[in-house]
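Data availability (excerpt). The following record was deposited with the supplementary files.
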Amino acid sequence: MQAITLSKPLAEIWPYIQIARVDHWFKNVFMVLGVIFAYFVQPEVLTWSSVPRLVVALFATCLVASSNYVLNELLDGPTDRMHPEKQRRPVPSGLIRPWIGYAEWLALGSLGIWVGVQVNIPFAVSAAFLWTMGVVYNVPPVRTKEWPYLDVLSESINNPIRLMLGWFALISSHFPPASLLLAYWMIGAFFMAVKRYAEYRHIGDPRAAAAYRGSFAYYTEERLLLSVLFYAAACSFFGGIFLVRYHMELILFVPLAAGVITFYFKIGLRPNSPVQHPEHLYRETTFMGFLAASMVIFVLLMFTHIPELHDLFNIEEASLWKIGSTR
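Predicted structure:
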């Protein structure tokens, strides 16, 4: 097959598009849970007239996420040269002019937050929080990505932030439940820790791993596996609190949730595991099929009422916090 040759102007622009990682925008699907739960709490908020607002909210989130990706690529360039695959990225390959890259970072972040203001203020604040965590994660001297455990926790916190973005796109007067946010944070940490474990094994040399990522100087395979267990357990406990307080019917989803976690972990244990590149997980057709079926069942259970479960566990429905409430 003959290689496609880009025109000179496009060839110069293309590296800047690459570092924005448009192909990673699919991760913003984590907003969907916020949308689903907002609809569960207030069904009247999701109408055809709310669709344009959701599209704008998604676009704003993608812009802010791309701003964070650009910053990550710029600051990771030197260490990416130590990675067997990432050394071919645009920054370590010398295809990016730093001043243009930083201008791209600021422009995407500013535009994303400005678009977020058009949705509502709580949404814009959440978008700014997402952007700020990108700075905390990447910029020295804090640069939490170099600290063991903080690297996973500070990156996976983007999950509950995205949930809030989906929620606030529809409801701006209430906060989503803290137990749901914490469970979402911990499942993200689980996925990220499995990714770290797969990366560490793939590099194969502790010194080379430490040169690539500072936290790998502390990590070992055992420590990474123990952290994976911790995050999975924490997600389970926080998730249990959420379902007991807000929707008992989700107890029927527990075996499927455990299956997804176990299946993903099994994939993470493979040599050169695909979890190192989550954007390519769509190739794991069996896993993706199981995940999709599980999500469909989750959504159906969200809108199913089984009184016998509430009677069996003697559970009363909990209320949500209101923004600005003095309670």
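Summary of structural features: DSSP finds 13 helices and no strands in the chain.
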